[in-house]
Amino acid sequence: MTDLPYIWREKKSIFQLKGLKCLKCEHVNYPLRRVCVECGSQELEEIQMSSTGKVLSFIVNHYLPKEFDKPLAIGVVELDGGGRLMSQFTEIKSEKDLKIGMPVEVVIRRMSDKDGMLYYGPKFKILQEETE
Ligand SMILES: [Zn+2]
User: Rounded distance, CA 96 to CA 78, Å?
Assistant: First the structure.
């Protein structure tokens, strides 16, 4: 699921959460690309995306190679202000910890320690839901 070399290539985009906002349709493109995925426009402006958002979807994996923490929850988050990001959740013990629509924050955490190398990347940390 996680393409580690890709993360290193796209370091600026991924670690700093830089996206490209389309000046035509306002879609936030992430990771960085040359044309808008929604309308094909090349008029894109680099923006700082929010580090908070809400869970759109998730899955929880229990059967993985030994270098991964288990269970491993992976999901898609819609960032506040636009842009979607797919990554792992951190500090998840079971499916019960996750709900669609719950608020999360993007944090940098260890992804894997394959072959004695440490790999870091963005993960989603659940924020306490605000009580209104
Ligand atoms: Zn567009």
Answer: 20
pTM given for the model? 0.79
Tell me, in angstroms, the distance from the centre of ligand 1 to residue 26's CA.
6
**Number of folded domains that form the chain:** 1
Report if residue 131 sits inside a domain.
no
- Give the DSSP letter of residue 13: H
Q: Which domain holds residue 73?
A: 4-126
Instruction: Establish if 132 belongs to a structural domain.
Output: no
- Provide the 8-state DSSP code for 115: G
Compute the distance between CA of residue 51 and CA of residue 30 in angstroms, rounded to an integer: 13
Q: Compute, in angstroms, the gap from residue 16 CA to the centroid of ligand 1.
A: 22
For 30-87, write each residue's pLDDT tens digit.
888 899 999 999 999 999 999 999 999 999 999 988 877 789 999 999 999 999 999 9
- 93: in domain: yes
**Spacing, Cα 25 to ligand 1 middle (Å):** 4
Cα distances from 96 to residues 17, 25, 45, 59, 117, in angstroms, run: 28, 37, 39, 11, 31
